[in-house]
Amino acid sequence: MDGRYYINGINEKERWIYIEKENSDFEEADSFVEFLTKIKDKYPEKIICVGEGRYKFEKAKIDLIYQWDNLFGIVVEYPKNCNEKDVIDFLSEFLK
Question: What is the bridge-based pairing of β-strands 65-69 and 73-77?
Fold first, then answer.
């Protein structure tokens, strides 16, 4: 799939980072699956479902929840004990 991923916005109150892929459609989950696959290729942890359309990597260094829906696209939710800059630095590895 063509196109790079980029951060489309950050909601500091909700602790959400919105990620979008160039040339993708929010109604298609393909870019979400591809994004998770990129992370799994580098960090081969088990992916666990933690709710409808919500996933996380078991034993991950940063306890992030990855969510996809057709309104927001890819959303990464980070915990209160996590520094936003650390999350962005981690995600930056996969925004290519």
Answer: antiparallel
The pLDDT score that the predictor gives to residue 29 is 85
Q: What are the phi and psi torsion angles at 85 (to 5°)?
A: -65, -40
Q: What percent of the chain has pLDDT over 90?
A: 56
Distance CA 10, CA 85 (A): 11
Sign of CA dihedral 4, 30, 91, 6: positive
Instruction: Please choose, from the candidates 37, 79, 38, 73, the residue with its C-alpha nearest in 3D space to the C-alpha of residue 61.
Output: 79
Quote the pLDDT of residue 60. 86
**What is the Cβ-side half-sphere exposure of residue 59, based on CA atoms within 13 angstroms?**
5
> Side-chain half-sphere of 22: how many Cα atoms within 13 Å?
7
Query: Whole-number mean pLDDT of the chain?
Result: 89
Is the entire prediction scored with pTM above 0.85?
A: yes
